[in-house]
Amino acid sequence: MLNLNIVILAAGAGTRMRSSLPKVLHHMAGKSLLQHVIDTARLLSPSKILVVYGHGGETVKQATSGNDLVWIEQREQLGTGHALQQAESLLDQDGLTLVLYGDVPLARLDTLRKLIDTTQNQYCALLTAKLQNPDGYGRIVRDPVTKEVAAIVEQKDANIEQLKIQEINTGIMIIPNRYLHLWLSKLDDNNEQKEYYLTDIIAMAVDQGVSVISSRPADFWETMGVNSKRQLAELERIYQREIANKLLDQGVTLADPNRIEIRGDLLCGSDVEIDIDCIFEGNVHLADHVKIKGHCTLKNVKVSAGTIIDSYSLMEEAEIGECCKIGPYARIRPGTKLADHVHIGNFVEVKNSQIASGSKANHLSYIGDTIMGEKVNIGAGTITCNYDGANKYKTIIEDDVFVGSDTQLVAPVTVAKGSTIGAGSTITKDTLADTLSLSRPKQISIAGWRRPVKQKK
Ligand code: UD1
Ligand code: CA
Questions:
Q1: DSSP result, 211-244
Q2: Residue 266 binned pLDDT confidence (cut-offs 50, 70, 90)
């Protein structure tokens, strides 16, 4: 088995982001740039992942998940070579070290695997790219005869001829550990930027007859870095479009693939339709024939087959059964579990409640901390009063209950099977099965009463 060490360089300040947040913590598609890199790194099954951090140290650590990570502080940022020197004592003697950048979030697993394979566990490997505008990047200098990689020259150190080279160093490289220790100790800062360049290792390799193999990523955006909010936004668009394309390829209908946001994992069954401007966060699962109309946000939600989520609905931490109708303008909050054929209509908020099949709350209601049976009808404006200012209480509504409009159910309270609540009632006591309960002041009519009229000034 190949022994792979991975070092993620993430110590840069990122001043061009113009933000108090460390650069690598800025989010793309719902997770930090660094987390993207770490998640991909893990899939390569390395023996260790070392993260070199500097700016915003503690914040970066706290915001990043994984007990498998080894954090190494680089107090002063003296260059990429210096960054790797900080990690050197923790790198193995055998196997390979793969260097990744914390601000280059989208390098694909396949691309990295391919790069690892090209080394045959003994050569150096570089991920390079050909750019129309190579400005700012290190240039790949090749031997004029053999066309083999000869060196990497940084923009600031390059001569006029070298500046014309369009093949650039993406920064992602692999070096066999048996050479790396020695070469790292030989780096110096005799260059324009007075930095220890990791890239100087390439010339050392060539000098010692160790081949440097290069390969290119399938897609240009895999090696795009983030230095500014503008680049972050551009890369986010590219990435979102990639995700949208994958969904289209799987047969999902997207009204506009440029107007969907996926900040996590969206899993879709067959014949799913998603209208414009929907946001999916965390883990969302949409089963067969689910339709999501425009402007909905779903976070960690499971929606079963045939359900329709109508426009402008917000849903979080919920499980929705088959053939339900939700929205428009519904708010489904954490802990909600709806069985099949449940209808939740406009301006209805459901929180921490279970609703059994065939029940409906179609207008203007709050259902909180409630267990509701089957075939219940909740009239417009019904409120479960679950909170007394200090504690929360449960409302139980059994099967076949009919709750008239504008009713308050003051928890803890049980509305028994088959019972009916008259409109406008405030229910504070449990009801009996199959009875009618109401609490209403008697209606009076005053004959001859006149509406007030405006007084003349
Ligand atoms: C580097 C490469 C250049 C390549 C470019 C690709 C070197 C000398 N140059 O240049 O060939 O074309 O990346 O984007 O390696 N970092 C640290 N500690 C440091 C310095 C940097 O952790 O002391 C980290 C940064 O956070 C970043 C990465 O290393 O993730 C690259 O640093 P950056 O300063 O952007 O390197 P470039 O000068 O752009
Ligand atoms: Ca850079």
A1: -EEEE--SSGGGG----SHHHHHHHHHHHHHHHH
A2: very high
Point out the ligand 1 atom lying closest to the alpha carbon of residue 104: 30
* CA of 128 relative to ligand 1 center, distance in Å: 14
Element of type H or E holding 281: strand 278-286
The residue whose CB lies within 8 Å of the most ligand 1 atoms, and thus the one to mutate among 53, 72, 80, is 80
Res 271: pLDDT? 98
Domain ranges of the chain: 4-223, 229-446
| CATH of span 4-223 | 3.90.550.10
Q: Cα–Cα distance between 142 and 161 in angstroms, integer?
A: 12
Which residues have C-beta atoms less than 6 Å from ligand 1?
9-12, 52, 74, 77-80, 82-83, 101-103, 137-138, 152, 154, 168-171, 197-199, 225
Ligand approaching nearest to the C-alpha of 195: 1
Percent of the chain with pLDDT over 70: 100
pLDDT at 258: 98
Give me the active site residues, please. Answer: 363
Phi, psi of 390 (to 5 degrees): -130, -45
**Cα separation of 30 and 264, whole Å?**
6
Residue 57 reports pLDDT greater than 90: no
- Per-residue pLDDT reduced to its tens digit, 272-286: 999 999 999 999 999
Q: Which protein residue has the closest C-alpha to ligand 1 atom 1?
A: 171
State the pLDDT at residue 428: 97
156-160: long-range contacts, CB 8 A cutoff, minimum separation 24: 156/191, 156/192, 156/193, 157/191, 157/192, 157/193
Considering only CA atoms, which residue is closest to atom 11 of ligand 1? 138
Which ligand is in closest contact with the Cα of 198? 1
pLDDT at 142: 97
Report the mean per-residue pLDDT for the chain: 96
Superfamily holding 229-446: Hexapeptide repeat proteins (2.160.10.10)
pLDDT at 407: 98
Of the candidates 18, 60, 39, the one whose C-alpha atom is nearest the C-alpha of residue 231 is: 18
